[in-house]
Amino acid sequence: MTREFTGWHMLGLMVGGFGIIIAVNLTLAWNAIATFPGVEARNSYVVSQTFEADRAAQNALHWDVSADITGGVLTVTILDHMGAPVQAEVTRAILGQATNVNMDSTPAFTWTGSSYTAPVTMTEGYWNLRLELIAPDGTKFRRRFPITAK
User: Fold this and answer.
1) Alpha-carbon torsion 74, 120, 103, 45, what sign?
2) What are the domain boundaries of the chain?
3) What residue ranges are annotated as transmembrane (predicted)?
């Protein structure tokens, strides 16, 4: 014996279907907000007023800066335009994943005479090193280095 498909059945299907869609959207929105690492700048307009001058000053240093992780050791090398190592003041360094601040760490860098090194613990995935330095002439230098941990 077959049952008759009524309006109540159709209402149940519609409420159930849209209920699933809304539940999934709310879950994804909540997770996106809960894992957002935060604000890079409080007022982007104020930061934008000096962006070109800051970038020009950083580019005028002619530094070649690289970051690499090998065997649990983070190495940051700063070379000037002649290829000589530069010892700059590290004012801020944060190693973390791009989408989650729970595993952020501040590497304790040591100057080796040719580069900065720091022991780090990382899991596999995409990581960023956000580095802020001050050149010997007082110029502020900021860069973000993508690092893939294997």
Assistant:
1) negative
2) 44-149
3) 12-33
Statement: 44-149 belongs to CATH 3.10.20.90? no
Nearest to 144 by CA among 130, 126, 127: 130
> Has residue 39 got a pLDDT over 80?
no
The DSSP letter of residue 43 is -
The pLDDT score that the predictor gives to residue 34 is: 79
CA distances (Å), 59 to each of 13, 38, 46, 67, 141, in order? 61, 27, 21, 18, 9
Burial class, 76, CB count within 10 angstroms (exposed 0-12 / middle 13-18 / buried 19+): buried
Q: Confirm if 110 and 118 have CB atoms less than 8 A apart.
A: yes
Give CA separation, 112 vs 52, 66, 150, in Å. Answer: 33, 15, 25
Distance CA 120, CA 54 (A): 30
Provide CB contacts within 8 A for 17, sequence distance 6+.
Answer: none
| pLDDT 10s digits, 86-134 | 999 999 999 988 777 788 899 999 999 999 999 998 888 888 999 999 9
How far is it, in rounded angstroms, from Cα 34 to Cα 46?
Answer: 27
